[in-house]
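user: can you give me the structure for this one chain? tokens are fine.
assistant: on it. calling the predictor now.
[tool input]
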Amino acid sequence: MILERTLNARNQTLLSKQKENESLVYTVNYAAEINGYVIASSVWSSEDSGVSLVSSATGTHTGAADQVILTDSAANLPNLIGCTISNTTDSSSATITANTPTTVTGTLQGGTDNDWDASDAYAINFYTEEKAFVLVSGDRGHYFIVNKITTTSGETVERYLDIHIMDNSRYYTSDYGFIAI
């Protein structure tokens, strides 16, 4: 009997917290792993209202000149290890080897300067050769999301996801797999 009362009290507390947080916007980071394909581009979309999808980032280096680590004090980047960052000011690029929400590490090459100078612009697409990332923001709820991928061989496939956002750290997704188009 005591155990049942304790569980009921916990359930009431949980329901109360859920009501409190109903209007909050939650963000989850979802990575779609692509087996057997090499990704050349990735585009995420949803026709559902109340959901926002972010699959790239742009900004400027806010640190000192001649740096090997990009710093953008205004950024809030997810884990992007393996993605490519481009210094659009000097045309160099690097594979990201480490990052925090405001910094990115990778060895720049192929550009005129191959380092980060104050106000250098950058762009990051949230995909590697094997994974496509998306930050999904929205109210707790159920959303239908499409990931359209173009492979290096020119094939286009769509991945359909049914995602339920529960809170900032928990979500559930049903994967509908790939359909070649």
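assistant: here you go. The chain has one helix and 14 strands. The longest strand covers residues 141-151.
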